[in-house]
Each structure stands twice: as C-alpha cells, then as structure tokens.
From TrEMBL:
InterPro entries referenced in this protein's UniProt entry, alphabetically: Ig-like_dom, Ig-like_dom_sf, Ig-like_fold, LRR_dom_sf, SLRP
Transmembrane regions listed in the UniProt entry: 494-519
Region feature (Disordered): 732-762
PANTHER family: AGAP008170-PA (PTHR45712), INSULIN-LIKE GROWTH FACTOR-BINDING PROTEIN COMPLEX ACID LABILE SUBUNIT (PTHR45712:SF22)
Organism name: Caenorhabditis tropicalis
Annotated signal sequence range: 1-19
Bias (Pro residues) ranges: 753-762
Residue stretches making up the Ig-like domain: 349-481
UniProt name for this protein: Ig-like domain-containing protein
Keywords per UniProt: Leucine-rich repeat, Membrane, Repeat, Signal, Transmembrane, Transmembrane helix
Length: 762
C-alpha cells in the first residue's frame, strides 16, 4: 500500500518536473539562428543544399544574372524547366565557366545558336523543347568540343543529319521525334531512336554499344552476313514489326529486348550472341515456332503470351551445378502447351519456375525419366489451321536423342517437300519439284512454311523423324481458318466486313438514288424553265415586233399627214406670194404718178394677204394639233396593250420582271421611241421646212411659221417667240415665170430684214 501511494505521488509530480526542460528545448530551437546553406532565388532551388547544383522553373534569360550573383559562377549543373524565351543562345551561359550539365526542358524554342566555344559543357538536354532544325543542333555540337551526352528527345525533327568531326559526343538521344533518316557523327556509341519513323537500318553506325530502335516502322531487318555489331552490348527493339527474318550478329551483346514483336518464327541459329545474359520477349502473340538454343551465359529469359506448344529440347543450357538453376530467371507462358513428357525436356533446367506441374500434372522426375529415343507427336496436336493467303507454319512435334532429321511429305498427291538436318542446320530440297518449292519452305528447326495458303493447300502432311534409333512419322491435317472472318475487327473480318460493306453499299445506293432523284428533278425543272423562258422570249419578241410595226405604221402615217399639211400650207403661201408679186408688178408702172393711191392699195393688198396667211397658218396648226393628239392616243393604246400582255404573260409563266426587262433591252435598239430619240434630222421638205430634232408635243413643233409682207412688198416670216422656235418654214424660191424684180423671202429670226434676193428700193 505504501508503494502504491509513492507511485501515485510521482505520477502527479512528473509533468511539473519535465515542463522546464521542454521549455528550454523549444526555446533553444527557436533561438538557433543559423545561416541558410543555400540562398533562395525566386523560381530556383538548390539540389542537396549545394550551390553547385541548381534547378529552376519558368525562368528566362534575364534571370541568369541574378542566378550568377546569388549562386556564383561555379555552378556545375543547371536544370531549367519551361524556358520562357523562344530563342536560346548558349553564349549566355558562358559566365558559368565550370558548367558541365545543362538541361533545358519543356520550352518552346524557335531557334538555337552559339558563337562562343564552350569547353566545360559535357551534358546537354533539350528535351520537349519543340526544336526542329537539325542544322542548328549540329552547329551547337561543333561549338561544344567536349560534349559527351546530347538529349533532344520529344521534339519535331523529321531528319537528323550531322556528320560533325572532332567531337567527343558518345551518347545521343533522338527518341520521340519524327525522324525518317539520319546521318550521325562517328563518335556516337550509344544511340536511342525509339518512337520515330525509321524504316531501315540505313546509316546506323555498327560501332555502337547501346541501341534502342523500339517503336519504329522497320520493314526489313539487316542480314547478319552484312551487318555486324562487334561492340553492341544492349539492343532494344520493342514492337518490332517483323514476322520472320530476325537475325543478329553481336558477339558482345548482353541484353536483348524484343517485347511486343510480330515475329512468327524465332531462329536462334541466326541470332549469334554468345555472351547474351538477358533475353526479353514478352507479349509475342504471333510466335508459333522457335529453333536453336540460348547461349550458356543466359541468366534471365522472358517468353510470354505466345502460341508456342513446345520448345526445342536443348533450348535452355543445362546448369553445370545443381544450384545453378536457381540463379536463372525464367518466365514462360503460352496458350496451348503440349503435355508430352518427351516434348517437355526443355523445362528441366527451370522446372521450378514453370507451371508445368499445375497445367500438365507432371513432375520433374517423370519428365527426366522418360525414354525419348525418337518419335513424332501428331494425334494429340489436332488439326493445324492457317489463315487464307497469309503465311502459315505447320510444326512437326518430334523428339529424339540425338535430334532426328525431319522430312516433309504431302499425303495426296504424294510428293516430297524437303528435309532438315538439325546437326548441320541445313535444309535440303532434293527431288522436290519447282512447283512445290514455290509454295513450301522448310524452316530451321524442321517446321513447314506455306507462303500463301489456299484451297489447294488443304491436305494432310506427313512429318518423318529419323535418327540412329529408327524412323517415326506423324500425319498433320491442315485446314483454313475462317474464324477471323467473324472477328470483331471490321477490317479483317469477312462477316462484319460484309455487313459493313453491305451497309456502305446500301448507303451509297440510297445516296445515289437520292442524288438521281434530285438531279432528275433539277434537270426537269431546268428543262421546263428553259422551255418556259423560250416561250416567254418568243412571245415577248412577237409582242415587241408587233408593237414596233404598229409604232412605225403610226409614225409613218403621222409623218405623211404632217407632210401633207406642210405641203398644202407652202402651196397656199406660194400661191399668195405669186399673186401678190403679180399685183405688185402691175402697180410698179404707176408708182411715179399715183404713189399715194398705189401705197394705199398695196397696204390693202398686204393686209388681205396677211389675213389669208394667218387663216392658213391657223388651219394648218389646228390640223397638226389634231394629228398629234390622234397619234398620241394610238401610242398610249399600244403601250397599254403591250403592258397588259406582259403582265398576263408574267403571271402565266411565272417569270420575273427582271428577266422581261433584259429581253426588252435586247429589242430597245429597234424601238420607235429610240429611233425618234436618236434621229437628229428628218430631212428637209422640199427645202422649205426645218424639221425638229424630236417629235414632241410643243408649240415649236405644232405651230406653223407666220408669213407677213413688209413695207417694201417682200414676203418674209414673222417673228416667232423663242419658246416656240422649234420649227422654221423657209419660203420656196420664186418660179421661173416670176420677174426677177420680185425677190424671195427666207426664214429669219432677227426681224423684218429684207431678203438678199429681193430688189433694193432706189
């Protein structure tokens, strides 16, 4: 009980004892004012608290002066994300005399340039900077003599041609561009050109040690006889778009990656890599046959998602010691493995890393103890299928010790197709017809390759395996696989492709029918419109011709009647003038004796003559006025008639006024109104009438000239007001019977001046 009380007392006193110590610690931490190891610049930070390794974000050229002032000029590595300028001149980094690593990423560079030789820079990265000019990059390489590593991935290069000399560039990263061809400096040893558009191995240096050519459109692979990579140690060719023909001669190669390749056949007899350690072939969904074996140096193998049913018995090297198998990494998966003891001999070195025990219910001891002298497994394989007109391989699942020689025969008709010797890795076509050689090829490993399967290749094929222990054969049935006709890939499925084609054909037919209907209706509408417009044109033309004829007839009648009035008027004026001249002649002899009587008589005669002339003029003017009114009424009736017929025709044929106006413009030149407006002279009437320039209803046109006899006895026109001075009538010359003393009067607008032909008064 006493101990319990002491414990409770200590518990209550413990916070008061420890509180001062805690206050002291927190105060020391707050008062610990230490200088920062790395000063801060807005947008930049130090890496590992070192002022020699700086990383900046979203800066431009103007920020470099502050970086130099704060961090000094001894910076060794500088990383810049999102360069803010669209131009980059490496001369701005010349103050950093010890700069070895420069990384400028995620920028938008339009141009690159450098004029100062920089001997300190060794690593340069321009990743994701939208660079597209290989000549500018090549110029940078020449100004950086000690540059060893250049990364320009994720840009817009369509080609890269740079054969710079006297450079130390060994690592070049051109991945994620759009390069179709390239020329590289001879000093490059590590090349990364994945995710481009290369189609061949052209201009790829053979002195490379590392090569990444993944995700390209390689349509061919170089033959090992012509291409040798003596120093190549790592090769990555992911998504290789090749079905056969993968060869490689690289005696120093240690790592090979062909993940996702389209290979159907893999021949390790043509892959000469004696020092290969890692082999990766994941997701080879088309791989159906493998020939040859891996080198003894292999430590890691990945062969997954294939169509392989077995592997060669010596595919994996046998470990020299019992614990060696545990050091190998083996990954293998296939869709349809043959669970035959003799066909599973290849799995003994890595049996513990496979799923054979679960899938085939076999132990390693059972497989190892199986006696496999010679044989062919055919009954368990079932029918082998191939797609129509697509290269197909028929495998011969044979076994034996030693490896048997494989021969292929066509069952019906019985014809030899060739043979394969696994010891020498050679194929023989002795006694094989040329027709069979065109259709069939014996591949390395003993499989039968059909170039373009069709109905003629659907047959049974006999595989004969022969070694020192005897001869065995197996019959394989080959059929065409039409399952892809019903696949969901529309472009490779006959069923869905047929449906899509039918739908497209129906759609096209529907569109063609609609187009035909619309075209037909449009054509008929245009034809009907053309016919309608043609009829309208003919009717308008006929109406216009009728109107023109009527107007011409009216014009001729009016002109003739006016001419008759004028002629009658002039005849009467001439008769009066002749009468007056005769009377004047009679009284000339009496001038001296009876001057007064003669003058009074002459005045009476003159007044009578003037009265007669006035009556004649009034009669002619009234007659001309009546003629003009009649002419005007007929013209108005003709215009009304034409307008009514035009409106009726427009309503009947649904023609716009604009079209009718265009038609009328074509007939305007022959219209009487146009003729009347364009005629400047109607011609003199016996030299006695001055005709008007236009027929218009005005006093100058309808009024006849007024003739008077002056005090000297001469007949002359009277003064006509200016507003009605449109027409002048000139007197005709006197007849030959008139004495020369009687002068003729001429029209004048200046008053009663004597005619130059009349005799002067003495």
């Amino acid at each position: 009980m006493r101990k319990l009380l002491i414990f409770v007392l200590l518990v209550f006193q413990f916070p008061s004892i420890t509180a001062p110590r805690n206050v002291t610690l927190s105060a020391s931490e707050l008062l610990d004012l230490q200088l920062e190891k790395c000063p801060q610049v807005l947008g930049c930070r130090c890496i590992d608290d070192s002022k020699k390794h700086i990383q900046c974000f979203s800066i431009g050229e103007s920020k470099l002066l502050e970086i130099e002032r704060v961090y000094g000029s001894n910076i060794r590595s500088l990383g810049i994300h999102s360069w803010q300028n669209d131009k980059l001149n490496l001369d701005i980094f010349s103050p950093f005399s010890q700069l070895e690593v420069l990384s400028i990423e995620d920028g938008e560079l339009d141009s690159l340039n450098a004029t100062i030789v920089n001997t300190s820079l060794k690593n340069l990265s321009l990743r994701n900077s939208e660079v597209s000019s290989d000549s500018e990059v090549c110029h940078l390489i020449k100004t950086l003599p000690n540059l060893q590593n250049l990364t320009i991935s994720g840009n817009y290069f369509e080609k890269f041609e740079c054969e710079a000399k006297n450079t130390k560039l060994t690592v070049l990263d051109l991945s994620r561009n759009q390069i179709t061809h390239m020329k590289l400096p001879n000093s490059v040893r590590k090349l990364y050109v994945s995710n481009n558009k290369l189609t061949s191995f052209e201009n790829i240096p053979m002195e490379l040690t590392d090569l990444d050519i993944s995700f390209n459109s390689l349509s061919s692979w170089p033959s090992s006889k012509n291409w040798t990579f003596p120093n190549l140690k790592r090769l990555s060719a992911v998504k290789l778009d090749l079905q056969t023909g993968f060869e490689l001669d690289a005696p120093q190669l240690e790592y090979l990656n062909i993940d996702g390749a389209s290979l159907r056949f893999l021949n390790f007899h043509q892959i000469k890599t004696p020092k290969l350690k890692e082999f990766s072939a994941r997701h080879l969904v088309n791989l159906g046959n493998v020939a040859g074996n891996l080198p003894s140096t292999i430590v890691s193998v990945a062969l997954t998602d294939t169509k392989l049913r077995t592997l060669p018995a010596d595919f994996l090297p046998i470990a020299p010691t019992s614990g060696a198998s545990s050091r190998k990494q083996f990954e293998f998966s296939t869709s349809n493995l043959l669970c035959h003891k003799c066909l599973l001999k290849w799995s003994l070195p890595v049996f513990s890393q496979t799923k054979i025990r679960q899938n085939c219910n076999l132990t390693r001891e059972e497989i190892s103890a199986a006696s496999c002298k010679v044989g062919v497994v055919a009954n368990e394989t079932g029918i082998q299928y191939g797609k129509y007109e697509k290269p197909t391989t028929i495998s011969c699942f044979s076994y034996g010790s030693p490896s048997p020689k494989i021969s292929w025969w066509r069952f019906r008709p019985a014809e030899n197709l060739g043979s394969y010797d696994p010891i020498s890795d050679e194929t023989s076509y002795t006694n094989v017809s040329a027709e069979m050689r065109d259709s069939y090829v014996i591949q390395s490993g003993g499989s039968l390759f059909i170039h373009s399967p069709n109905r003629s290749h659907v047959e049974r094929y006999v595989c004969v395996a022969e070694n020192i222990h005897g001869k065995e054969y197996g019959i394989y049935q080959f059929r065409l696989d039409y399952l892809d006709w019903y696949s969901f890939d529309v472009f490779h499925s006959v069923f869905w492709g047929g449906l899509a084609t039918s739908f497209i054909v129906c759609l096209i037919s529907f569109l063609l029918n609609i187009t035909w209907i619309l075209t037909r209706k449009s054509a008929l509408w245009w034809i009907q419109r053309a016919e309608r417009l043609s009829r309208v044109r003919k009717m308008v033309e006929a109406m216009e011709k009728y109107r023109v004829r009527q107007m011409e007839s009216l014009h001729d009648k009016y002109t003739k009647r006016v001419q008759i009035v004028r002629d009658n008027y002039h005849q009467q004026v001439e008769a009066l003038r002749v009468s007056y001249a005769a009377q004047q002649e009679k009284f000339q002899n009496y001038k001296a004796a009876q001057v007064d009587a003669v003058h009074s008589h002459l005045d009476a005669m003159r007044d009578g003559y003037n009265n007669q002339l006035g009556r004649v003029r009034e009669y002619g003017s009234k007659r001309a006025e009546q003629l003009w009114e009649s002419y005007e009424r007929q013209v108005n009736r003709m215009r009304t008639f034409s307008l009514q017929h035009r409106l009726k025709m427009m309503r009947q044929y649904k023609v716009k006024q604009r079209y009718v106006n265009k038609l009328l413009e074509s007939f305007q030149a022959s219209s009487p109104e146009v003729q009347l407006e364009n005629v400047n002279d109607l011609g003199p009437i016996d030299g006695a009438i001055d005709t008007p320039t236009r027929l218009s209803r005005s006093s100058s046109f309808h009024s006849l000239p007024e003739y008077v006899i002056d005090e000297q006895g001469n007949v002359r026109p009277g003064i006509i007001p200016i507003s009605s001075a449109g027409i002048r009538f000139a007197t005709k010359p006197a007849a030959s019977s008139i004495p020369s003393g009687a002068g003729t009067s001429s029209p004048s607008s200046s008053g009663p001046n004597p005619s130059p032909d009349s005799p002067r008064k003495d």
